[in-house]
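Async update (no meeting this week)

Hi team, since we skipped the sync, here's where things stand on the single-chain job. The sequence we agreed to prioritize is pasted below, unchanged from the tracker. I ran it this morning and attached the output directly underneath so nobody has to dig for it. Comments welcome in thread, and please keep replies under the output.
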Amino acid sequence: MSAYDALQYRKRQAMMEGEETGIITPWENVNKKVPPLKPGQVMAVISASKQGKTTICLNWFWWLAKYKRIPVLFYCVDMRLNDIVDLLTAHVLKADREKIGHSEWVQAAAHFYNVPIHFCSWSPELSLETVTDQIELAAARYGIEAVCFDHLHVLCRGAENYFGEISKASSVFRQTAQKTNVPIVVLHQPSKLLPGQEPNLYSASGSSMIPADADVIVSLFRKPIGSHEDDEESEQSFEDKIKVNVLGSRFTAGGFTTLWLHGKCARITESKNTEEMPYRGETNVQDERSTTVREGETSVKE
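Output:
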């Protein structure tokens, strides 16, 4: 075992023994409501479309990898890999996500280099078994210490017993987290909601198993602007303010707080008036591992 691997092992043992706080977010107000995720735990994030759930989790996992040096896996089957890369490029450069091109990719390369964030995306062979196999492979090969899966209902779409497959997948993710000893954040799509209705503990499709399988359940909600009866079209469909509500937790009382979405540059902040992320603990630490990142190594599945 190398010195680096030994150090990673020591960190994991410390987290298991309660010496470390676990996986936290970059937003202090969220950390006051959402308990740290420890190895083997599952967080369910319930949010309707266009509420910012992918952007929030990508901001979070980039921060973990870039500034906490925690190897993470962002597994997104709801967006193409190209779109995820452009979203992250916009976030890192604070650039307009609609105008990302070659010059922005060149600038972003220096930011991405040696950052231990890995990606998996949709493939024709997509199934619950292939997803869990790739998570286990990533944990073993890259030392992944946190996983985000976006999102469960795309994975189960087309199943003969849709709700039964979602319940099964929820349980399998729980088992995978415990088997790999890695915390997993699973994004859920709620059942059909009325306009302006917030998700609740049982809003997610197949939700009967979610409270049993998840250690923490969080909902995201943005108020719609106007209504479907308005004649005038609005530039955006929802407010920039995101309500983050802890619907259930085994470890805390929960409650809610607020984040702000800066959609053009794909950044999530605690303040409405700034696009700056609260990069507490930001350093210029360089990865001292002897291996280098080569083209294609940011994806577990080619």
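Quick observations from my side:
The first strand starts at residue 42 and ends at 46.
Confidence is low (pLDDT under 50) at residues 281-302.
Reply here if anything looks off.
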